[in-house]
Amino acid sequence: MGINPTESDVRELLFSSLGDSRGELIALEQFKEIPFEIKRIYYIFQTAENVKRGFHAHQSLKQVAIALSGSCVFDVETENGSSSHLLDSPSKGLYMGGLVWREMRDFSHDCVLLVIASECYDEADYIRSYDAFKHQKSLLAQ
Ligand code: T46
């Protein structure tokens, strides 16, 4: 492929609220709560029932996903194994860095999934073939 994927890292992040009697407020800053420089945000919402999304990895993109409303599940796979993560709170983020295969499912009707990314959109960073992902993963494991 000509591009070396970076080692993967998946972590759940818990954000502190600055809430008071008026309600909750969470602030996210680059290099603080978000462990990278922020170059892009996007959000996924009004996902149709039973839809699954993702089914790709990234060469080097770092992202934090947060369900601002509702819930969804991320199934992720790295060279260190597989795990599932329920995102069901604006206080919880899922950090994914490097070579991480991701599939998203079980979107609630009210799910608004915010994603904060370390790079601008670049289709060349996507690995959309599971076989290509497994090959890249085997290179990392060596
Ligand atoms: C990821 C998961 C969590 C753009 O033009 N710009 C963008 O910034 C993004 C994110 C997407 N697109 C285009 C590419 C496709 O034509 O929007 C269309 C839908 O994207 P995709 O099918 O990749 O969406 P998901 O939900 O499968 O994956 C997205 C992100 O692409 C991906 O990086 O990690 O959410």
Question: Could you characterize the architecture of this molecule?
Answer:
The protein has one helix spanning 130-141; strands at residues 9-14, 40-45, 53-58, 62-69, 72-78, 81-87, 92-97, 101-105, 112-117, 126-127. It is built from one helix and ten strands; from the N terminus they run ββββββββββα. The strands form two sheets. The protein has a five-stranded antiparallel β-sheet, with no helix packed on it. It is globular. With 142 residues, it is mainly beta. Helices cover 8% and strands 42% of the residues. The protein has one domain (10-141): Jelly Rolls. DTDP-4-keto-6-deoxyglucose binds next to strand 2, strand 3 and strand 4.
Short description:
The chain is mainly beta.
Helix content: under 10%
CATH top level label:
Mainly Beta
Number of alpha- plus pi-helical segments: 1
The count of strands amounts to 10
Mean pLDDT: 94
Distance between the termini: 17 Å
Strand content: 35-45%
Shape: globular
Distinct bound molecules: dTDP-4-keto-6-deoxyglucose
**Estimated structural class:** mainly beta
Regions with pLDDT < 50 over 5+ consecutive residues? none
Oligomer: single chain
What's the arrangement of strands in the largest beta sheet?
1-7-4-9-2
Could you spell the SSE succession in H and E letters?
EEEEEEEEEEH
**Do you know the CATH architecture?**
Sandwich
